[in-house]
Amino acid sequence: MDKVYQVFISSTFADLKKERQQVSNTLAKAGYLAAGMELFPASDEQQLEYIQRVIDRSDYYVVIVAGRYGSTAGDGKSFTEKEFEYAHSKGIPILAFLHSNPRGLAVEKTDEDPAKAARLQEFRERLQTGRLVEFWSASSDLSTNVLIAVANSANLKPRVGWIRGDQAVDPKVLQDMQRLRIENAELRASLAEFLGEPVGFDPTLVGPNDTMPLSVLVSGQQSPTKLEVAIGDLFIAVYDQLLAELPEGQMRHHLGHAAAKLANIWTANQSYMIEPESVVALRQQLEALGLLMPISGRSGTGATFISWTTTDKGRKFAALKNARRKGEPNG
Q1: Could you report the per-residue pLDDT of 136-184, keeping only the tens digit for each?
Q2: Over the stretch 62-72, which tens digit does the pLDDT of each residue have?
Q3: What is the C-alpha separation between 200 and 317, in angstroms, rounded?
Q4: 202-322 is classed CATH 2.30.30
Q5: Per CATH, the architecture of 6-156 is what?
Q6: Which residue stretches of 30-100 are H helix?
């Protein structure tokens, strides 16, 4: 059953409106539900109570901090910090992104009040305690880094997520199970016949055994890493994700990790994501080889995105690649 993760985006309101919108759009295009301040900026305790209910329904909490502490409640604490405290109390994974040089921001994007400036510094230090944080300066880098961090968290710490109402289990499912068992047996018989013929490719195309250059974004590195991996090996490495028909934004993350492992540069403490130009070129090549079929979709916010799924030819190619041969050792 497909699930979609909801990400709550928290920040001060007016000074980070552009950055917050770019992050929301990037997450939506990758298939996530972005929730946050645009419809209900926290400005009083009653609004905060409503926001807390939205946080309760979110899977991950992203907080973006720049040069302002933000509007405060009666106790002098900002609503942004109160949202952070609530998410922390509920055990929701927190991903913090701090501006690398807040003193270099324009005057209108910083706090002139010394008391608020001091509270901001305390809040930054608090966010850096007990968790890894990322620093940003450009909004374009911020959007990419947030997407990488959310995708990595979803991979390492899967959450409850959301499913479509029509995908919930009902009594009819139990009635269908026997029919599906029968169809499964028939498909197995058809597959046995299907696998008897080899998979062919146009010899004029760059094929599964050929390598393809890829540009991979690696967390903590300023410039992308250039890799060359065999197309067929990369296809097999992400075959399970293709069966799940994931959005292209999420596939970039899985492809990046797979490419890093194939190139023997993968480490557990880093995130990897293929750059957009490389992922489009790879998608087009796999489609030309008949292994991949892209599907257009639309998120709950109305943003369009592309999902990856394999073809019958791709399934056969993967089955033959993964099948055991006579005489091969076990394991």
Answers
A1: 998 888 999 999 999 999 888 888 887 665 555 554 554 566 667 667 7
A2: 999 999 998 88
A3: 9
A4: no
A5: 3-Layer(aba) Sandwich (3.40)
A6: 45-56, 79-89
